[in-house]
Design a protein that fits this description.
The complex is a heterotetramer of chains A (about 290), B (about 400), C (about 325) and D (about 250). Chain B has about 400 residues and is α/β, with parallel strands linked by helices. Helices cover about 35% and strands about 25% of the residues of chain B. The chains are: A mainly alpha (about 290), B alpha/beta (about 400), C mainly alpha (about 325), D alpha/beta (about 250).
Chain lengths: ~290, ~400, ~325, ~250
């Protein structure tokens, strides 16, 4: 029993880390119909900035996180303006081609600037140490990731469901022409949502770095994982993404605990099963 | 940069084959870009350090190096590159090769090419049996792992759980350790093979904890996964619980140590080379290689494989006086022994694999506050146990 | 827009003869292939690799370009062919044509499995994800079955017999290249017939509107499944060629990376024409080879730039670009990717 | 005499919403029936139920005396129940000739052949030419469908249906969206339909309905409210209520 709870805690925190990284991709794919394979690259940029700020400049962790988000968004703005905007509404294959190209470029440039080594983001003392939660010890940063996940999910949900911006965004998604006829500047709405998605990716890249270490090939290494998680959840659905991350996190973690030799089989078999049963994702929009 | 020698490739495919007679060309294949670029850079650093120290000539013959990039294991591309080196660039020697399948794709070409292959890294025992023209100056996983079995028993450890990445070298490591440990009287209570793309190791650590073992033996490819693994080992409290950590040195390669940080302190690994190895030869080597690679913290084990590989190639050139004769070249280095930066080494005349010391090391903190692999025990003249008996 | 007011002439306009263009096309491919043989005699192993990739890209075009099925897992079929041929070769079946046949059969069986799973989903993203999951499972299985496949060390020790008992697969790779070129031409010609056949037309119909095809009284699923098997056999031939020419089969031949690369090459060349697969492969791999020779440390950035530039200036691929500028139509293509 | 086509008590509910309620009607050989009704009456749902695109909640469909309720859309087509689409569904990259050829090959079970020539068979070619000629599509036979006029596309819809040699033909608003200059062409095509064919036409254009239909069924809010001769429709109170009332009560069924 204790083992089960222990595994559940691991699964939960791992799933939450995935969630924070992936939810931005879910937004771009679901709301903006953009298959952005470069999402991981933005998460990676966030990780690099945070690593530079916290490790090389010795800044406070929270400040480094903030800097990472802002910096990544800043880098993403011209990319959105000149590249991504060209492929909104383009065929999926075109989007795949373009975003893979962008990923390659970002990897190449990162490699050039920072070298091929692993980058760590030193955690503040409070997060670095294991915490005793009664029946086992758990790394404090895992709890931190859990809290971040809950905050991000809640915040996003209320942003989309409860604010004027959310209304505009949903309207623009359902009918862009009508929405702009009503006087909403849809390209601004898109740009803001894109920035939001990138910012979330950067946040995920930083706080998830304990699970998915930051290095130049981060963007390619985990591209598939992110894409799969988002599709399973149903692109654009926040509860769907939470559910998918927790479910796949659970399958992955328990699979690796019970039969580590066949860990990947469980994961991908679960993916196939879910996609066959719910082609639009667990809670995807019809 | 030596890489620039390839500039011509863009236009010069037609103009091939203008090599001058007195120049001996050596083709080096390695991962100079991609996820393993650091290991490729180490190849290059080793080669350049050797040539800086010993001159660009062997017995009066100019030695020219041609680098070819092979970012990841891809036998098809490997064969194409080897063919291009042999046929177009007219190299007399092939060297480098980081991954086993890539080496296996080259071996069938050697006889016809009349060129020896000196492997700087690819660490699967069986490569040597594929062609008599292969010489290896790196190590095999079995070779570096085997002493750990005795170490464990000596330290009073009776029960061990093994956790290895589920791929060739991982399985080699598991088998080698099990064999050595059980021969020494220990018991492997459980063997876990983890998929290569595992990112969260907490469930594995839970297994380790549940198994009741006194130590965990691990093998993972060097790089990002190592970080997650060592973190999980610390975070889940295994370290505090006193469960020892044993692994071949791939896990604590010097270029990963800064990322691992203090969490790596106390890890026990066995390996053929530590950058910290205390000898005049190594001091000279580290100085030269650091200059070539651009930073001391990027230096790691492939550089020494390359350095010694170049030594072997130089000896071959001397033996054949610059003429292309693969068999003579290989025969000349059988039994060759010298003092490498890693310590005394020799080429086993039977297997053509390097015989060398294996060191037990502990990750410790130096005076400069940086962690390093501290050699604490030496197992001299280790051969590759994976090749010792003929056949299986 | 014209109205129906005009009355029609009695006879249909004569059909435009499209097949002569294909004869020219095939002749052109053969000429380019032979030119490669004469111009780059030292890089034949690379060119053979290009041919194997071109076969893989062709097999993807059959699904993406003619049926509208997106896949990022085609290497599962390529790898099935490569491993089947490799295992057969290690176990004593060494005749090259037999090995290619074995590869084709294995590829089409893998295609059957893949089709059954992937056709559970009816459109883009879920299909992509299923294809990724399948190629990962194949990869995992190949790694696990190391007794058969050699696992991550690769399946080594293939020594295919001489072609026609005369031409050895040797260091210079002449046999391998010409063998590959012959296979490519044969496959290309056969595929031109396939896409022109009633079946090929039906597939194009399905790509545009499966509901209409159903209303014509044709079942969609078996047609697509059949295309999966044809596509699988083409990919399998590519895999077998790779196995024969390299004499090693590695896990990379069943990887997501290989699938993605091939798809990128195809899209680069342009989908739905068969020619695009060839053009894209040659251009991409040529570019990669040249750039990585000049500077192995930064080729990735340059390849990335190439892809971005392509999307911005030639969104329909290189063949699309060519059609735009020459007015020559290489083949019929669907309106959307 | 058994009817060629018959539906009994066909009903469909989406959630709690009844879109079709207990619809029964039958078509003998050679029938020309028009199904009309105000917007949202459930006409398209009815077509989808009959052709098998939707599964009914209750009721049965008979074709040639056989119960086909359990069969899928494709099976029903193969048994002679063929439809056209309200919004044309054609392959924009193919020519009308290719559409019809493909359809005929399909009917003959040859469309799935890989090693056969698409345009090789002179018998098929003749039949294609005949059908296209009937519908006046010969001069555009080798143009891409994306390039031809919308009225011609509607005719092509009918041509494809005829190429299947149907027993029962469902025409879903064959004149919708066609400029009025082109409707005579469609009317003429309808007049030339084989006499033995049973035709069920859904149409808004009442002129067309009165000229074409021998019998009219009026559907409102998912129910049949009138069955009878065209001449009687306008006089029926319930029909007047359904059409005019729909403006008073707004939309009842969306």
């Amino acid at each position: 029993m204790q083992t089960i709870i222990s595994i559940a805690v691991d699964a939960l925190t791992y799933g939450m880390a995935l969630f924070v990284i992936c939810i931005g991709l879910s937004l771009t794919m679901g709301l903006m119909r953009l298959v952005n394979l470069a999402h991981g690259a933005f998460a990676m940029i966030g990780g690099y900035i945070a690593s530079y700020a916290a490790r090389d400049l010795g800044l406070w962790y929270g400040f480094a996180v903030l800097l990472a988000i802002l910096g990544t968004v800043l880098i993403a703005i011209p990319l959105e303006r000149f590249l991504f905007r060209r492929i909104y509404g383009a065929p999926q294959l075109t989007q795949v081609l373009m975003t893979i190209g962008i990923t390659f470029c970002i990897i190449g440039i990162t490699n050039y600037l920072f070298g091929p080594t692993l980058k760590t983001i030193p955690l503040p003392r409070g997060l670095a140490e294991p915490v005793d939660i009664g029946f086992r010890t758990i790394a404090a940063h895992r709890l931190f990731v859990l809290v971040c996940g809950i905050v991000v999910a809640g915040g996003l949900w209320s942003l989309i469901e409860r604010t004027a911006f959310g209304v505009k965004l949903r309207a623009a998604v359902d009918n862009a022409a009508m929405t702009s006829a009503l006087g909403v500047r849809t390209e601004v709405v898109y740009a803001v949502s894109f920035a939001l998605a990138v910012g979330l990716g950067a946040l995920g890249g930083v706080i998830g770095a304990e699970f998915l270490p930051v290095e130049p090939y981060y963007a390619l290494r985990y591209m598939v994982t992110f894409l799969v998680v988002v599709s399973v959840g149903g692109a654009g659905s926040i509860p769907g993404a939470v559910l998918a991350c927790l479910l796949l996190g659970a399958v992955d973690t328990t699979g690796r605990y019970l039969m580590p030799d066949f860990g990947n089989f469980f994961f991908y078999a679960a993916v196939i099963l879910i996609v066959c049963l719910f082609p639009r994702g667990l809670l995807g929009r019809a | 940069m030596a890489v620039r020698t390839l500039m011509g490739a863009a236009f010069g495919l037609l103009l091939a084959g203008t090599a001058s007679a007195e120049t001996v060309k050596v083709g080096i294949i390695g991962p100079f870009s991609g996820p393993f670029a650091l290991q490729g850079k180490n190849f290059q650093a080793g080669v350049e350090a050797y040539m800086a120290a010993n001159g660009k000539q062997a017995k009066g013959h100019d030695v020219e190096i041609i680098y070819k990039d092979l970012p990841a294991a891809n036998p098809q591309a490997s064969r194409a590159l080897a063919q291009e080196l042999i046929v177009k660039d007219k190299v007399q020697y092939l060297g480098g090769v980081y991954f086993t399948p890539d080496a296996l794709a080259i071996t069938p070409l050697l006889k016809q090419a009349n060129a020896p292959l000196v492997i700087f890294n690819a660490a699967t025992s069986a490569i040597m049996t594929q062609s008599p023209l292969v010489v290896r100056t790196s190590f095999t996983t079995a070779q570096t792992t085997t002493p750990l079995g005795k170490v464990a028993v000596d330290r009073g450890i009776k029960k061990v759980i093994t956790t290895v990445s589920d791929y060739g070298p991982g399985v080699d490591a598991e088998n080698a350790f099990k064999k050595a440990f059980e021969a020494a009287g220990g018991q492997v209570v459980e063997s876990i093979r983890m998929p290569l793309n595992t990112t969260d190791f907490s469930p594995i650590m839970q297994r380790v904890k549940d198994s009741g073992a006194e130590a965990v033996f691990s093998f993972l490819p060097s790089g990002p996964t190592t970080l997650g693994y060592v973190k999980a080992y610390n975070d889940t409290g295994l370290k505090q619980a006193g469960i020892k950590f044993l692994a071949p040195g791939d896990l604590t390669q010097e270029s990963d140590l800064p990322a691992l940080g203090d969490g790596a302190l106390g890890l026990l690994t066995s390996f053929h080379y530590a950058v910290s190895h205390d000898s005049p030869e190594n001091k000279k080597f580290v100085e030269g290689a650091t200059k070539a690679i651009g930073g001391a913290d990027q230096l790691s084990f492939p550089s020494v494989g390359a350095y010694d590989g170049m030594h072997v190639i130089y000896k071959m050139i001397e033996a054949t006086d610059g003429k292309q004769d693969a068999e003579k070249a290989v025969n000349a280095v059988k039994g060759l022994s010298w003092t490498s930066p890693r310590g005394p080494v020799s080429i086993d005349p039977e297997t053509r694999h390097v015989t060398q010391n294996i060191y037990l090391r502990e990750v410790a903190k130096g005076q400069d506050g940086k962690t390093y692999n501290k050699e604490i025990q030496t197992f001299p003249n280790q051969k590759d146990p994976g090749l010792a008996p003929a056949g299986q | 827009m014209q109205t129906l007011a005009q009355t029609q002439p009695v006879a249909m306009p004569q059909p435009k003869r499209a097949w002569w263009r294909d004869i020219v096309g095939v002749a052109l491919i053969a000429a380019v292939g032979l030119a490669g043989y004469w111009l780059f005699p030292d890089n034949l192993a690379l060119l053979t690799r290009v041919i194997a990739m071109a076969l893989l890209a062709l097999s993807i075009d059959l699904l993406v370009g003619y049926c509208g099925i997106a896949t990022l897992g085609q290497a599962a079929l390529f790898g099935a062919g490569a491993y089947a041929a490799g295992i057969a070769c290690v176990n004593g079946i060494t005749e090259p044509f037999t090995l290619v046949l074995i590869g084709a059969v294995a590829g089409s069986l893998a295609g059957l499995v893949m089709g059954v799973v992937m056709l559970r989903a009816s459109h883009g993203l879920p299909q992509l994800v299923l294809s990724i999951a399948i190629v990962q499972l194949f990869h995992e299985a190949a790694n696990k079955a190391s007794a058969w496949t050699g696992g991550s060390d690769g399946l080594a020790g293939l020594s295919p017999a001489a072609l026609f008992g005369v031409f050895e697969f040797d260091l210079w790779g002449r046999t391998a290249y010409l063998f590959g070129l012959g296979l490519l031409l044969t496959v290309f010609i056969v595929l031109k017939f396939v896409v022109r056949s009633p079946f090929g037309m039906l597939c194009r119909g399905i790509k545009e509107d499966p509901v209409r095809v159903g209303a014509m009284g044709a079942f969609v699923f078996p047609v697509l499944l059949k295309m999966f098997m044809i596509s699988g056999s083409v990919a399998g031939i590519g895999g077998a060629l790779a196995a024969i020419s390299t004499q090693v089969v590695g896990l990379d031949s069943v990887s997501f990376e290989l699938s993605a690369n091939a798809l990128v090459m195809l899209v680069l060349g342009g989908i739905g024409t068969l020619y695009g697969a060839l053009v894209g492969t040659v251009i991409f791999m040529g570019f990669e080879h040249v750039v990585s020779s000049i500077n192995p440390f930064h080729w990735m950035t340059l390849v990335g730039v190439l892809l971005i530039v392509m999307v911005l200036f030639a969104p329909r691929g290189l063949t699309g670009l060519m059609e735009t500028y020459t007015g020559l139509k290489l083949g019929k293509r669907g309106g959307r990717a | 005499m058994s009817d060629l086509f018959r539906v009994e008590g066909l009903s469909k509910q989406f959630g709690g919403l009844a879109v079709s309620r207990d619809i029964s009607l039958s078509l003998p050989e050679g029938e020309r029936l028009a199904l009309i009704g105000p917007n949202g009456a459930g006409k398209t749902t009815f077509v989808n139920l009959v052709t098998g695109q939707l599964k009914p909640s209750a009721g049965r469909v008979f074709l040639n005396g056989q119960d086909v309720t359990g069969l899928g859309a494709v099976q029903r087509v193969r048994r002679g129940l063929v439809r056209t689409f309200q919004v044309t569904r054609l392959f924009s990259e193919m020519t009308p000739e290719e559409h019809v050829t493909l359809t005929i090959l399909q009917r003959e079970g040859r469309a799935n052949r890989v090693f056969a020539r698409f345009r090789g068979d002179s018998a098929v070619g003749g039949e294609v030419e005949g059908i296209l000629a009937t519908l006046g599509l010969l001069d555009v036979a080798r143009r891409r469908v994306g390039e031809i006029a919308y009225g011609q596309q509607r005719l092509l819809e009918i041509a494809i249906a005829l190429a299947l040699k149907p027993k029962v033909l469902l025409l879903d608003e064959p004149a919708a969206g066609v400029p009025s200059t082109d409707t005579p062409r469609i009317e003429r095509a309808l007049e030339q339909l084989p006499p033995s064919l049973a035709v069920l036409m859904i149409e808004h254009d009442m002129d067309l309905v009165f000229r074409f239909a021998r019998r009219v069924v009026v559907l409102a809010a998912g129910e049949v409210i009138f069955q009878g001769l065209p001449a009687e429709v306008a006089a029926d109170d319930r029909v007047r209520e359904a059409y005019l009332g729909s403006y008073a009560h707004a939309r009842r069924v969306a």
